[in-house]
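Example (one chain per record):
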Amino acid sequence: MATKKKVKEVQTDLAESAHKIWLAGLGALAVAGEEGSKLFDTLVSRGQELEGKGRKQVEKAKETVSGVKVVAESYWTTFEQKLDEQVTKVIHRLGVPTKDEIETLTKKVEELTKSIEKLRKAESKPKTKTATKSTKTAK
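Predicted structure:
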């Protein structure tokens, strides 16, 4: 009987140990759930902080790039003006007429051409009348 008692005690001890292990597992699961949600909340909070800082840095970078762009455009415009001025000076030194000068000369040539055409028409009309009068007198 002593053996049966010992077997029963061992069985009871094993059952209690298994139950304690089961309870420890449930406790670990509960702690992990609680700590997990706390950890998750902490991670979300930290992520929001970093995102805010990142946005600020991106905005600063955009402002810097925008400022540099404005300065570069200003320098480019100044460079273009100076280059145009220098090219114009060289062209004048070489005696090449400007666009405005060419346009003015073109207008004058067109006016002269029209005047010449008018003179030619005026000269040709009296000759025709004179020619008909001389043919009549010759008859």
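Caption: The mean pLDDT is 83.
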